[in-house]
Amino acid sequence: MHKSWQLTEQGDRCLLVQFSGELSLETGLRCTRAARLLRAQAPACISDLVPSFTAVAIHFYPDGSSDQLARLHDYVHQALAELDASTDQAAPGALVDIPVCYGGPFGPDLPAIAEQLGLSQEQVIELHSSQVQLVFMVGFAPGAPYVGILPEQLNVPRRATPRTVLPKGSVAIANQQTIIYPNESPGGWHLIGRSPVNLFDARRSPAALLAPGDQVRFVSLPHEQFDHWTPA
Fold first, then answer.
1. Could you count the other beta carbons within 10 Å of the beta carbon of residue 118?
2. pTM of the predicted structure, to 2 decimals
3. Residue pLDDT, tens place only, 201-220
4. Rounded CA gap, 231 and 75, in Å?
5. How far apart are the first and last CA of the chain?
6. Is the dihedral of CA 209, 27, 46, 37 positive or negative?
7. Calpha distance 41→64 (Å, rounded)
8. Angle 202-208-211 from CA coordinates, rounded to 5°
9. Which of 11, 124, 136, 182 could crosslink 200 through cysteines, CB 3.0-4.6 Å?
10. Residue in 97, 102, 100 with CA at minimum distance from that of residue 192
């Protein structure tokens, strides 16, 4: 165990670097920056590096050697020593504008959320789009970003009953985070809008538009422009 992170073995082909047990912007940045440093120094046996809200999973192929785990531990300690020594706290990725048609048929939960929070619908929209937010991780579905942290005024739990189908591009909130559903799928978060952006395309490289460490700026889009929006 290290003073600022803990390294544990998860089965015979994964190491977990745990930075914290609580969601925070500082921890999210540490995870995304740690994943970048680990990827830059990764030995050939590493198959994947997956940052999340509070940890980074390091997946590897066992090579049958008696000292593989020791070598992997050294690799983690070396990379994270650079992380501890660095004073750079900037997000490592790109800044991406995501247009959103809020409310109406695109965001059927917006009126109820506004009432529950004691806000107007316009205030909810303004708070949701008022600040740049971090992509903590991508998961649940290919290309689906978990983005945060939302202002405390927008802190709501998940829906009591998930929907079985949400339209592609649905923008939903819960637990001070936003998720964007890249394709039609079930979902248990509160639907406040929809984006025309194509978040995942297997023919594109990279296939996912957003990656952990990127920053998102939500931009309100008039409803009548949804079908006509094109990337800049």
1. 8
2. 0.86
3. 889 888 899 999 899 999 99
4. 40
5. 47
6. positive
7. 21
8. 160
9. 182
10. 102
